[in-house]
Amino acid sequence: MKGLRERLEKHRGAGLYRSRRLAQGAQKPERALDGRRIVNFCSNDYLGLANHPEVVAAFRRGADHYGVGSGSAHLVAGHTGAHHALEEELADFTGRSRALLFSTGYMANLGVAHALLRRGDAVFEDRLNHASLLDAGLTSAAHFVRYGHADLASLESRFANVEFRQALIVTDGVFSMDGDIAPLPALSRLAERHDAWLMVDDAHGLGVLGEFGRGTLQHFGLDQRQVPILMGTLGKAFGTFGAFVAGEEDLIESLIQFARTYIYTTAPPPALAEATRAALAVLRKEGWRSTHLQTLVDRFRKGVTSIGLPVLDSITPIQPILLGDAEQARQVSEALLERGFYVAAIRPPTVPQRSARLRITLSAAHKESQVDRLLAALADTMGGRAGGGG
Ligand SMILES: *Cc1c(COP(=O)(O)O)cnc(C)c1O
What does pTM read for this prediction? Predict the structure, then answer.
């Protein structure tokens, strides 16, 4: 097609070309990628639940009972007892009045912004928010305003310069490419002062932070009044697929009435809801998973610091090593792959220009020996770069 080839070649020339690798076997750390045995260090399956026998069994039972497809949208005839029970359990888990399932996190974020915001409103977003949140704000009817990363002074100054009827502040709970945690207590006080709504996307905090993995809000002890809109995804620590929004009755009813990404799409398979219910149950009873994960995070940080690599400041399983140059990040990722470790190079536009990085994620499914071997491979491929030498 006219013009596409040139554009693709330019993209390749800039070191930004992306291609998919073929993953084989079950979703767990040791698997084959493009036919090569590797240990995976870039899955978001933080608790190792994606391939948990009880989760798999629940999925299978759900399919035996319901069949595979839901047949229609939630508002037509697709909303089953499995979906409904999962919503009640998610509301209970997050300590909120109600929860509403969405097919994906991307759709949940679009749904919230489009349902709640109207012309004359303003949406304020952290500049490092996940792409789905930025897209949600940009395509909403509201005036879109970005503020500096986790920067309350920057947000305050944006408020001083924008006129609006209703404001919505939107942030990741744990930033997906950096692993740091949003300053939620301060954001909630600022929101209250300006009579603004606050929305937290806790895709990377749920299952990981807080008691029983109840997430970033629980980590800070924030309730539904302080943070009225919580979005969570099910495809990360919960090990399944999909997303939900949780909050007060009027929020959930508004989404059911007005969120087009909720209304005009087929309900996810009921068997998937059964699998997620099983994941929630496992999360509650296998507390060793988050303890082991924390041990691995501490072990990795100690190791990577002693090698002297530029690891970002993060207490979460997201442990990025900042390289800057996109082509260099690609080469290091390739060198690690040769040694049997898969660590994706994250490049612009997923992250800002000149901040390409290796995004290493740890999982309760990893063994300490695998983390140690990754550290050795990192020292081997990047040790020469330590101490600001390159
Ligand atoms: C993964 C992710 C999403 C999108 O969720 P999907 O269910 O994969 O569409 C949204 N927000 C954040 C912060 C994420 O990391």
Answer: 0.96
